[in-house]
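Obj: model holo form, ligand = NAP.
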Amino acid sequence: MSSLNEIRGRLALITGASGGIGAACAEQLAERGVNLALTYATNLDAMNKIVTDLQSKYAENKLKISIHQVDVGKADQIEKMFQEIDAQHNQRPDILVSNAGYGKRFPNVWDIALEEFDYTLNINLRASFILVKGVVEHMKSQRWGRIVFMSSIAAQGGGINGCHYAASKGGLTGMMKNLSTRLAEHNISVNDVAPAMIGETGMIPNAAAIPEVAAGIPLGRLGTPEETANAVTMLVTTGYMTGQSLLLAGGLK
Ligand SMILES: NC(=O)c1ccc[n+]([C@@H]2O[C@H](COP(=O)([O-])OP(=O)(O)OC[C@H]3O[C@@H](n4cnc5c(N)ncnc54)[C@H](OP(=O)(O)O)[C@@H]3O)[C@@H](O)[C@H]2O)c1
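Output (holo C-alpha cells):
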C-alpha cells in the first residue's frame, strides 16, 4: 500500500462498535494494525468480548484499543468521550467511522411521533456533525483524514423503515457530499456506505426476522457485516475517492 493510504499505526474512532457492522469494521482495521477507540451505548458485554477477541487475534499488531460508553444523541457524552480519547491515545482520531445508529421501525408517517423523529435525527444525523467537529481540526493540521458515515438505502427512499429514518440517513448523505467538497483541500476524504438488509446485526438478526423483504432481495440472501466493513476498509485505504455514497444492497434499489 502506498504511503498515501498507509493506515497502520493510525487511530480510528468507530461508534457503535458493539453492534454487528461496527464490530466488523473494528476487526478489519485491527487486522491492518490500526489503533482503535470503540464506542458502545448499552452492550458492555459484547464490547468487552470484541476487544478481548481482537487483542488475542491480532496480538502481533500490539494494538492500543480503548472503549467508551456514549449515547451519541447527547453532545456532552460525545465531548466526554473525546476527553477520554485525548487522555488514553494522546491524539484525536485520524479515521472516523460514524456508525452508531438507531431506527425503530414505523413504516407509516401517521405512526411516527414527533419525539421519535427528533430522537432518530439526533442519533443518526446530529451526532455525526458533532463527531466531525471533534476530529476535523486534528485531521486538518496533519493534512490526512478519513471520514465514513454509515448511511442506508433509506437515504434514497428505500428500505423497510419510515420517513424519520430516511430523513436521518438522507441528511447524512447530504452532509457527506458537502463536507467532501469543503475538506478535500485538507486531504480529508468523506464518504458514506449505504447498506440494506445486513444480517447478524441488532437491526436484522437473520432472514426470518424479515421474511417477505428477504424473499425480495435479488441476490437471494442478506448481506453480512463483513461485506459492509469491506466497503469501509476500501474507503479508508483509498483516499482519492471522496464524496461517494456506496450502495450495498444485494440488488435492491
Ligand atoms: N443492518 C442493516 O441492514 C443496516 C442497513 C442500513 C444501515 N444500517 C446502519 O448500520 C449502522 C450499524 O447498525 P447495525 O446494523 O450493526 O445494528 P446493531 O447491531 O444494532 O448496532 C447498532 C450499534 O449502534 C449503537 N447505538 C444505538 N443507539 C445508540 C446511541 N443512542 N448512542 C450510541 N450508540 C448507539 C449500539 O450500541 P449498543 O448495542 O451498545 O447499545 C450498537 O453498537 C447503523 O447506523 C444502522 O442504521 C444497518
